[in-house]
């Protein structure tokens, strides 16, 4: 069975061939395989609609049935240019000329999936060509042996795409498709994308009144009371778990003189991503991360080996100047709040500290039911610090993973220049993976800031710094949770945990009385006193995904009870108020 990437690549050729059959004169742009599918940018003589995709799929099926072989040919670059000129493929000719003249087809500095995808950069003499019947493409391959090896496919959408991403060049039509080894996997994928649309956190955020975005502050969410309630519940959990593990919380300033950023190195390589400000003729920058300032707290006292490890946690606002085109709801923002911490420790403590962070992550992710994958990234070619220290540190990370019984994948050479790291990816309910936690060892900042501790030998030594986050940022984590739960937060996280539904107006005072008792026991409770019918109130509470609806009428008021309905529609019937409260508190304590 060919691998998925090969299949996707081959499907892009078959799709382009089908479009050329149906719409003669269609010229080829580029068509790479992408995550979960493929696309092709095509210059079609007419504007395509989604109806046309049905015909394209049918033509693709015909080509697949013909078992047409993919035939490879290496042509002298001039011969390749002549071939594509003859076929009227001006875009391919442009790519080949760029390759011939510059050794690359890239435009600008941007690296996009389509850059250099069809050619071998640096090879200015020859070009790799693939033929599939009458179809000819410029491509490095590999492909399936013949078109019959293509799995079940589906074309998904059409969008406009400027040639080479340049708005001054012609606009082509980009057709997206997907292909899978089995019909079952295709079905599952199609369900996942439909479900992902339904769960889109921007849409659910509006519907559930969690947060909003306004043009006055791009990339910065306005958290509404309900969104804030979720964030507070996450914060409470985080503070408690940090305190239990010996972290101490600090808060450092947002607006900091450029001197600090120069010393930390951010000025040199991160300035473009910082918001700058002039204050009384001095240059300041809003902090994009907390690390440099945590070293000021470290240096505020003389540290001895007995003081280490020092675990400093900080959850303050950061600002990063992300380009407006890259902003994406809560998933990519300009204002972010990390559940950040920096651990300062001795080399011999690295292993135990990493073990502690791994345990922390596991305990928290278990509360959300996230399966996870671990990656260990090691020393890159250009690395800072003593090579022996690297060996010790990498071994400590690997040991910590091993002794925690955690399987991991190695990413050789992918560590940061200042130290090795562990990345933790989680899978959400739709099987999509997200990188949340990174644990980074850092030999660089302690060096730059001259951090020291006095060792047992009475001599000064350099501590190691560990950067780590568990949620990542609150903003992104909230977005991921909204999609993971499709807005139906578990009871402990739900912004409103219970809604009182009075049967008639005369039951409102009793409902208020019950609500006051529940709030006094820290249950987030609302009373729906609107003049609507009871059924309508229950439906609305269900739409707002409130875990408990408590109906109160004459019988309940008399007995000091509530009639309990769950979000799922299950009707638990009347319960004495105390019994309900106990039930709810037990579930909250268990993070249900
Ligand atoms: Zn190809
Ligand atoms: Zn840091």
Strands, total number: 29
List the bound ligands.
Answer: zinc ion
pLDDT average, as an integer?
93
SS field, number of helical segments: 18
First and last CA, distance: 43 Å
Q: What level of helicity do the residues show?
A: 25-40%
Structural class: alpha+beta
Estimated radius of gyration: 29 Å
Q: Describe the main β-sheet briefly.
A: 9 strands, mixed
Q: Ranges with pLDDT <50 over ≥5 residues?
A: none
Shape: globular
Q: Into which percentage range does the β-strand content fall?
A: 25-35%
Walk me through this protein's architecture:
- Helix 1 packs across helix 2 and helix 3 runs antiparallel to helix 4 (90-102).
- The chain has 18 helices and 29 strands.
- The model has no long low-confidence stretch (mean pLDDT 93).
- Helix content is 36%, strand content 25%.
- It is globular.
- By secondary structure, the chain is an alpha+beta fold.
- Strands 11, 15, 16, 17, 18, 19, 20, 21 and 24 form a 9-stranded mixed beta sheet that branches.
- Bound molecules: zinc ion (2 copies).
- Residues 9, 13, 130, 139, 141, 143 line the site of one zinc ion.
């Amino acid at each position: 069975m060919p691998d998925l990437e090969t299949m996707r690549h081959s499907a892009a050729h078959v799709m382009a061939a089908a479009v050329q059959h149906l719409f003669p004169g269609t010229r080829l742009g580029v068509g790479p395989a992408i995550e979960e599918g493929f696309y092709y940018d095509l210059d079609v003589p007419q504007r395509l609609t989604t109806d046309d995709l049905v015909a394209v799929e049918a033509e693709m099926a015909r080509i697949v049935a013909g078992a047409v072989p993919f035939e490879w040919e290496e042509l002298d670059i001039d011969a390749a240019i002549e071939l594509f000129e003859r076929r009227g493929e001006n875009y391919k000719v442009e790519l080949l000329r760029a390759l011939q003249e510059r050794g690359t087809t890239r435009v600008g500095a941007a690296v996009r999936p389509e850059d250099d995808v069809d050619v071998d950069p640096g090879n200015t003499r020859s070009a790799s060509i693939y033929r599939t019947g009458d179809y000819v493409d410029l491509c490095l391959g590999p492909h399936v042996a013949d078109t019959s090896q293509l799995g079940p496919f589906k074309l998904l959408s059409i969008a406009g795409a400027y040639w080479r991403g340049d708005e001054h060049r012609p606009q082509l039509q980009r057709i997206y498709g997907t292909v899978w080894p089995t019909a079952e996997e295709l079905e599952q994928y199609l369900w996942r994308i439909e479900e992902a649309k339904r769960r889109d956190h921007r849409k659910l955020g509006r519907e559930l009144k969690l947060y909003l975005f306004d043009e006055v502050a791009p990339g910065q969410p306005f958290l509404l009371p309900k969104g804030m309630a979720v964030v507070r519940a996450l914060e409470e959990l985080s503070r408690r778990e940090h305190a239990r593990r010996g972290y101490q919380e600090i808060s450092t300033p947002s607006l900091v003189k450029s001197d600090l950023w120069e010393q930390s190195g951010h000025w040199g390589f991160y300035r473009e991503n910082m918001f700058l400000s002039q204050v009384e003729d001095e240059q300041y920058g809003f902090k994009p991360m907390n690390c440099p300032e945590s070293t000021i707290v470290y240096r505020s006292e003389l540290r001895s080996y007995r003081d280490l490890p020092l675990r400093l946690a900080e959850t303050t606002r950061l600002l990063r100047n992300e380009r407006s085109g890259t902003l994406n709801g809560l998933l990519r923002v300009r204002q972010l709040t990390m559940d950040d911490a920096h651990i300062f420790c001795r080399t011999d403590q690295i292993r135990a500290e990493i073990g502690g962070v791994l345990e922390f992550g596991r305990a928290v992710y278990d509360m959300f039911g996230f399966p996870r994958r671990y990656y260990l990234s090691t020393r890159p070619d250009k690395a800072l610090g003593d090579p022996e220290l690297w060996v010790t540190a990498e071994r400590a990370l690997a040991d910590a993973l091993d002794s925690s019984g955690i399987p991991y994948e190695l990413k050789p050479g992918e560590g940061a220049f200042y130290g090795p790291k562990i990345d933790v990816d989680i899978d959400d309910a739709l099987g999509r993976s997200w990188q949340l936690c990174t644990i980074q060892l850092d030999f660089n900042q302690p060096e730059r800031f001259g951090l020291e501790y006095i060792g047992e030998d009475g001599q000064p030594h350099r501590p190691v710094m560990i950067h780590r986050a568990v949620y990542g940022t609150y903003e992104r984590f909230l977005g991921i949770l909204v999609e993971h739960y499709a807005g139906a937060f578990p009871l402990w996280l739900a912004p409103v945990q219970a809604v009182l539904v009075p049967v008639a107006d005369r039951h409102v005072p009793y409902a208020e009385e019950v609500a006051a008792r529940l709030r006094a026991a820290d249950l987030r409770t609302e009373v729906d006193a609107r003049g609507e019918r009871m059924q309508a109130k229950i439906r609305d509470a269900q739409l707002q995904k409130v875990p408990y609806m408590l109906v109160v009428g004459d019988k309940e008021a008399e007995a000091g009870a509530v009639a309990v309905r769950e979000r799922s529609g299950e009707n638990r019937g009347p319960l004495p108020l105390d019994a309900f409260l106990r039930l709810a508190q037990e579930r909250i304590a268990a993070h249900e």
